[in-house]
Amino acid sequence: MKLNKSIAATFALGAACVTALVAAGARAAPPAEECDIPQSLVESEIDLPRVLTEIKDKHRLDITVIGTGSSGLAGSEGARYAYPARLNDALKARLSGSDIKVTAHVQPKQTTAAMVSGMGKILSDDKPALVIWQAGTADALSGVEPEDFRASLDQGVEQIQGANADVILMNMQYSPRTESMLDVSAYADVMRVVAQQRAAPLFDRLALMHYWNDEGTFDLYAATKKYDMARRVHDCIGRALASQIINAAHLDAVRIQTTR
């Protein structure tokens, strides 16, 4: 499933734009606090028991984000505005009284197999209660066979859960500029299957961004050199992730019990 060089180069250019989300113009886009996050896309039938225990017993939550370029933003202040930092702020706002720490490990163009090779050290150093693992983009771009991708993903999730951490899998971004050049559906399907088999929630970033594009919240097709839209999309993703974590760990119920 190798891409020829011209297609790979074209997609890489498009992916680079999407990674920074500078391929996002505006259809009179609303401010970030108004972006719509459908409840159906952040609900989870799978629990996050370790997260619940950490918040309930220790009032603390250490989260590790492992991802490729689409988990970061370019520029000297990129990390401040990328979704890991926005997630950190969103959880602090919603879980007042708890110590929240989100640590991001972002390596552009790294395949899932390569991420697995460094997973042990990250888990040992961070000792997270929750790992958010963004994968699939580099594998699709590199032409990694879906079955090989599945094997690496499954191995990594097993390693994370073996380290007594919950895991959320995050799939790839939606890009109308590149979808005609590379079909990522096989990789998205693999992530959904592995998530179900390993009892791990899936954060469906692909569907969420597709929804925003269709609804006109963000125009992910029009090219622009401005970074304000990129920051707003990442802010929305961070808050959507916070909602999924709180839902899956039943943290709203914990807050009610502890404030009575």
CATH class: Alpha Beta
Percent of residues in helical segments? Answer: 40-55%
CATH topology: Rossmann fold
Placed side by side, the strands forming the largest sheet appear as 2-1-3-4-5
Number of domains: 1
What characterizes the major β-sheet?
A: 5 strands, parallel
Order of helices and strands: HHEHHEHHEHHEHEHHH
Q: What is the second-level CATH architecture?
A: 3-Layer(aba) Sandwich
Low-confidence spans: 4-33, 256-260
Detail the topology: elements first, then pairings.
Layout: H1 5-20, H2 49-58, E1 60-67, H3 78-81, H4 83-94, E2 99-106, H5 112-117, H6 119-126, E3 130-134, H7 137-142, H8 146-162, E4 166-170, H9 185-197, E5 202-203, H10 205-215, H11 228-248, H12 251-259
Parallel strand pairs: 1-2, 1-3, 3-4, 4-5
Helix pairs in contact: 4-11, 8-9
Describe the structure.
The protein has a 5-stranded parallel β-sheet, sandwiched between helices. It has a single domain, classed as SGNH hydrolase (Rossmann fold, 3-Layer(aba) Sandwich). The radius of gyration is 18 Å and the shape is globular. Helix 8 (146-162) runs parallel beside helix 9 (185-197). 51% of the residues lie in helices and 11% in strands. It is of the alpha/beta class and 260 residues long.
Quick recap of the structure?
By secondary structure, this protein is an alpha/beta fold. It has helices spanning 5-20, 49-58, 78-81, 83-94, 112-117, 119-126, 137-142, 146-162, 185-197, 205-215, 228-248, 251-259, and strands spanning 60-67, 99-106, 130-134, 166-170, 202-203.
